[in-house]
Automatic annotation (TrEMBL):
<dbReference type="InterPro" id="IPR005135">
    <property type="entry name" value="Endo/exonuclease/phosphatase"/>
</dbReference>
<dbReference type="InterPro" id="IPR036691">
    <property type="entry name" value="Endo/exonu/phosph_ase_sf"/>
</dbReference>
<dbReference type="Pfam" id="PF03372">
    <property type="entry name" value="Exo_endo_phos"/>
</dbReference>
<keyword id="KW-0808">Transferase</keyword>
<dbReference type="GO" id="GO:0003964">
    <property type="term" value="F:RNA-directed DNA polymerase activity"/>
</dbReference>
<keyword id="KW-0695">RNA-directed DNA polymerase</keyword>
<protein>
    <submittedName>
        <fullName>Putative RNA-directed DNA polymerase from transposon X-element</fullName>
    </submittedName>
</protein>
<feature type="domain" description="Endonuclease/exonuclease/phosphatase">
    <location>
        <begin position="12"/>
        <end position="186"/>
    </location>
</feature>
<keyword id="KW-0548">Nucleotidyltransferase</keyword>
Length: 203
């Protein structure tokens, strides 16, 4: 899923194991040249590498469990030419996340986060986790896989996560930008992006 925001081309993708789809990722980058690629469910471990020419990679792998199958994890690939710095994310109750902050000369910093809300975790911490991420910067963009359904952003039904996120945006200066069609083939789901900006309204 791609977006254009602040003149940046931002792509968000649940890779469901990026190592097995690295050729698809490279082909997409060669064709579209996004400024940032936000990945969820990378399924990477400490011995794995994720390197793309002209991009800097930041990762937060899920800690290894006593099982041979790797799960979860988030990452951001950002063009190395863009002025930026890594923004640490605190451990959270519901979310896995990786953040970077863009630092354009003479302009406000913009924090961009790749997020994965784990489907089996309780929804009680969603508001706290989102507030933690948005508190990093006055201007924040969160893209990712929220495992959240709500008719407000084009799904055919509401689930608990969707209701919780809808309540969050109703009580904060936050907007959702969603595609008009499902982005997961075979399932009636839709991707969402959360934008928070205390100084302007994002369309």
């Amino acid at each position: 899923m791609g977006y254009n925001c602040f003149g940046l081309r931002i792509t968000s993708w649940n890779a469901d194991g990026v190592r097995s789809r690295i050729i698809e990722l490279r082909d997409f980058i060669d064709k579209h040249s996004p400024d940032l690629i936000l990945l969820q469910e990378t399924h990477l471990g400490s011995g794995d590498t994720l390197q793309i020419p002209n991009y800097t990679t930041y990762r937060d792998d899920r800690p290894t469990l006593p099982t041979p199958k790797r799960r979860g994890g988030t990452a951001i690939l950002i063009k190395s030419s863009l002025p930026h710095f890594r923004t640490p994310t605190q451990p959270m109750g519901t979310a896995e996340a990786t953040s970077v902050t863009l630092a354009p000369p003479g302009s406000n910093h913009i924090t961009i986060t790749s997020i994965y809300l784990m489907i089996h975790n309780a929804i009680a911490n969603i508001h706290t986790d989102l507030e933690t991420i948005f508190s990093i910067s006055d201007v924040s963009i969160i893209c990712g896989d929220f495992n959240a359904h709500n008719t407000y952003w084009g799904c055919s039904y509401n689930n608990g996560r969707g209701k919780s996120i809808k309540n969050f945006i109703n009580s904060t200066n936050t907007q959702i930008i969603a595609p008009t069609t499902p982005t997961r083939f075979g399932h009636n789901s839709a991707s969402i992006r959360l934008c928070s900006d205390e100084k302007s309204t994002l369309a």
